[in-house]
Write a structure and sequence with these properties.
Low-confidence stretches: none
Number of helices: 3
Order of helices and strands: HHEEEEEEHEE
Radius of gyration: 22 Å
Structural class: alpha+beta
Shape: elongated
Distance between the termini: 68 Å
Number of strands: 8
Length: 154
């Protein structure tokens, strides 16, 4: 009697491995994107904390000249942009500051909405599945600066 595997047995094993890879690969990719997305979220949170500290120091008002100088964020050294573009101040008023950053692949953009000295929420616009993969959820926005239909509240 010969020892070894038959062709049928090898084919069955290959089919089982193929099914396992097909099921596991999307979950793996989603978890990898969530880890990458944390870079952008952490950058926006660092900028928001710094802007909100400036808000308190400036008499409870956002002063754009204290946040941006020569087109660059004064608190830009708090961030590390590898997979995301450098965060920018999209808009500001005396009670509202919105920072934005985009994934370098262009799949989605993140917005941090700061109101009255607090980070209100971070929202995501662009590819819906990418936004879901990084942990964004359905939400209701309170202004036109939200940037999309998925958000993370604090």
């Amino acid at each position: 009697m010969k020892k070894g595997f038959t062709l049928i047995e090898l084919l069955i094993v290959m089919v089982i491995v193929g099914i396992l890879v097909t099921v596991a690969l999307p979950k793996y990719q989603a978890s990898m994107e969530r880890g990458r997305g944390l870079e952008g979220i952490n950058n926006l949170r660092a900028l928001s904390d710094a802007a909100n500290a400036r808000y308190v120091m400036d008499g409870n008002t956002y002063v754009s000249s204290n946040l941006v100088s020569g087109g660059k964020l004064l608190v830009g050294d708090l961030t590390k942009s590898v997979l995301f573009n450098t965060p920018t101040l999209q808009t500001s008023s005396s009670t509202l500051a919105v920072f934005t950053t985009a994934r370098s692949t262009g799949d989605y953009r993140l917005y941090a909405v700061n109101r009255n000295g607090e980070l209100e929420y971070i929202s995501c616009s662009g590819d819906r599945q990418s936004c879901l993969n990084i942990g964004m959820e359905e939400g209701t926005f309170t202004d036109s600066y939200s940037g999309g239909n998925l958000m993370m509240t604090f």
